[in-house]
C-alpha cells in the first residue's frame, strides 16, 4: 500500500517559514510521502534553503521570481500584482475571487500550477501569499486541504490607504480560502480568537515552537549580552525600547541583533545608542542557518521579544523569537501583548514583562539582573523549565495536535 501523499505549500522561502518545514518534517517522519512547494526571491535565503533541504529527504520544488536569476518572472509577476491591486481598489467588494487572489499574492498563479503539477492526496499550506493558491489548487483537483494562519493576515498592515486595501484583501482571502478547508491552524491562541471574532472561523492553535534540545550550557558571568533576531532588523520592533532601557539602567551591555537590516536602520540605531546608552555596544550578525536558531542563542543571556503592538497582528503574534529563547535557556524580556500572554503567564515573575513603551520597567528589570546574577540564573532556569514542560514542538498540544488533525482529514 502506497504512502499517503501530502503537498506542503509556502509562498516564502523554506528558510523563512519554519512552520511549513516543521510540518513537512513531522509528516515525513510519520510515514507520509511529502512534497514541499515554495518560492525563491532573496539570494541569502535561497542559499539557506538549499542547505536546509540538503538535510531532508522530502521532495522540494521552488519557483524563482527574484530580480537576478528570474528577471522576466520578477517583472511579469510584479506588473500583474500591481494591476490587480488597482482593479481590486476600483471594484471594492464586487471584485471577483481571481482579482483578489492576484492582488494579494504575487505568485498565486505560479503556486497553483506548481501544486497541480503532481498528484497528491492532501494539501496543507501557509504564509499569506499561499492561502488562495492552496484553496484553488484543491478545488481544481478535488483534493482535501487545510490552511495555516501563522499570522493574523488581515491585521498585518497599518491603517493607511495602502494598508487598508491589503488588510481587506487578506480578510476576504482568509475567509474564502478557509470555506472549504478541513481545518485551519493558527500561530497563537490570540490569533485563533481574533479569527473567530473577525472571520467566524474556528482554528487549531499550533504555536511557533521548535524541537526540544539538550539542556543549555551557561555562559560565564560577564557583561550582559542581550539578543534579538528576525528576518528584518528595523523600526517598530522594540529595539528602541531596549536601547533606552539600557541607558536608564546604566549598565555595561551588548545588544546583539541578527537579520537583514532595513536601509539606514543600523546607523540610526547606533545614533540612538550614542545619545542615550553610551555603555551599550551594538553587534550585528548576518542571518544564520534556520536549523540552528536555538543553538545560535546559546552565547547570550537575555532574549528580547519586545513587539510594540503597532498592528493587530503584531499584538496577537507569539513569535518565533519569543519561543526560541526559552529553548536556549535565555532569560526573557517581553512586552505585555495578547500574543505573549500565555508564555508570560507561564514564566510569571521570572521574566521581565512590561507594557510597550514602558522603558522604565524594562530598565528596572535589566538593572536587577545586572546586579544579581543569581536572579538572572534563576530566570534562565525558569525559561528552560517552561520550554521543557510545555513550549516545544514535541509536546502533544503542538506536533501531536497537528498530526492528529492531519490524520483525521487526510
Give the full name of the CATH homologous superfamily of the largest domain.
Answer: Glycogen Phosphorylase B
What is the name of the CATH class of the largest domain?
Alpha Beta
Largest sheet: 7 strands, parallel
Q: Mean pLDDT, nearest integer?
A: 94
Q: Domain count, please report it.
A: 2
Helix/sheet category: alpha/beta
Instruction: Work out the helix count.
Output: 16
- How far is the N terminus from the C terminus? 15 Å
**Strand/helix succession:** EHEHEHHHEHEHEHEEHEHEEHHEHEHHH
Strand order of the largest sheet: 3-2-1-4-5-6-7
**Overall CATH architecture of the largest domain:** 3-Layer(aba) Sandwich
Strand content: 15-25%
Strand segment tally: 13
Written description of the protein model:
The protein has two domains: 5-209 and 393-409, 3-Layer(aba) Sandwich (Rossmann fold); 224-389, Rossmann fold (3-Layer(aba) Sandwich). 45% of the residues lie in helices and 18% in strands. It is built from 16 helices and 13 strands. It has a seven-stranded parallel beta sheet with strand order 3-2-1-4-5-6-7, sandwiched between helices. A six-stranded parallel beta sheet has the order 10-9-8-11-12-13. Strand 1 (5-10), helix 1 and strand 2 form a beta-alpha-beta unit. The longest helix has 21 residues, at 71-91. The radius of gyration is 21 Å and the shape is globular. It starts with a strand and ends with a helix.
Amino acid at each position: 500500500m502506497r504512502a499517503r501523499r501530502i503537498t506542503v505549500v509556502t509562498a516564502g522561502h523554506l528558510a523563512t517559514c519554519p512552520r511549513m518545514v516543521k510540518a513537512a518534517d513531522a509528516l515525513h517522519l510519520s510515514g507520509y510521502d511529502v512534497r514541499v512547494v515554495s518560492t525563491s526571491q532573496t539570494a541569502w535565503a535561497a542559499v539557506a534553503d538549499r542547505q536546509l533541504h540538503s538535510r531532508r529527504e522530502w521532495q522540494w520544488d521552488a519557483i524563482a521570481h527574484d530580480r537576478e536569476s528570474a528577471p522576466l518572472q520578477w517583472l511579469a509577476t510584479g506588473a500583474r500584482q500591481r494591476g490587480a491591486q488597482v482593479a481590486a481598489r476600483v471594484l471594492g467588494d464586487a471584485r471577483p475571487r481571481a482579482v483578489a487572489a492576484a492582488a494579494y499574492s504575487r505568485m498565486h498563479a505560479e503556486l497553483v500550477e506548481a501544486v497541480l503539477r503532481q498528484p497528491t492526496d492532501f494539501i496543507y499550506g501557509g504564509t499569506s501569499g499561499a492561502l488562495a493558491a492552496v484553496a484553488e489548487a484543491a478545488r481544481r483537483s478535488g483534493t482535501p486541504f487545510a490552511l495555516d494562519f501563522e499570522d493574523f493576515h488581515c491585521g498585518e498592515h497599518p491603517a493607511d490607504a495602502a494598508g487598508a486595501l491589503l488588510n481587506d484583501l487578506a480578510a476576504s482571502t482568509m475567509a474564502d480560502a478557509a470555506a472549504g478547508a478541513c481545518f485551519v491552524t493558527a500561530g497563537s491562541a490570540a490569533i485563533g480568537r481574533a479569527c473567530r471574532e473577525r472571520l467566524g472561523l474556528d482554528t487549531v492553535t499550533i504555536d511557533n515552537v521548535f524541537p526540544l534540545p539538550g539542556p543549555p550550557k551557561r555562559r560565564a558571568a560577564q557583561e550582559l549580552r542581550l539578543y534579538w533576531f528576525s528576518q528584518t532588523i528595523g523600526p517598530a520592533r522594540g529595539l528602541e525600547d531596549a536601547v533606552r532601557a539600557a541607558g536608564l539602567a546604566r549598565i555595561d551591555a551588548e545588544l546583539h541583533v541578527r537579520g537583514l537590516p532595513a536601509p539606514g536602520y543600523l546607523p540610526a540605531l547606533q545614533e540612538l545608542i550614542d545619545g542615550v546608552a553610551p555603555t551599550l555596544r551594538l553587534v550585528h550578525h548576518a542571518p544564520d542557518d534556520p536549523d540552528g536558531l536555538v543553538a545560535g542563542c546559546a552565547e547570550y543571556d537575555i532574549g528580547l521579544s519586545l513587539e510594540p503592538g503597532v498592528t493587530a497582528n503584531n499584538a496577537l503574534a507569539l513569535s518565533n523569537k519569543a519561543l526560541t529563547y526559552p529553548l536556549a535557556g535565555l532569560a526573557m524580556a517581553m512586552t505585555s501583548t495578547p500574543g505573549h500572554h500565555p508564555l508570560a503567564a507561564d514564566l510569571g515573575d521570572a521574566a521581565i514583562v512590561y507594557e510597550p513603551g514602558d522603558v522604565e520597567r524594562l530598565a528596572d528589570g535589566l538593572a536587577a539582573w545586572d546586579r544579581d546574577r543569581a536572579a538572572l540564573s534563576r530566570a534562565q532556569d525558569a525559561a528552560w523549565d517552561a520550554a521543557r514542560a510545555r513550549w516545544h514542538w514535541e509536546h502533544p498540544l503542538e506536533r501531536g495536535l497537528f498530526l492528529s488533525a492531519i490524520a483525521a482529514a487526510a
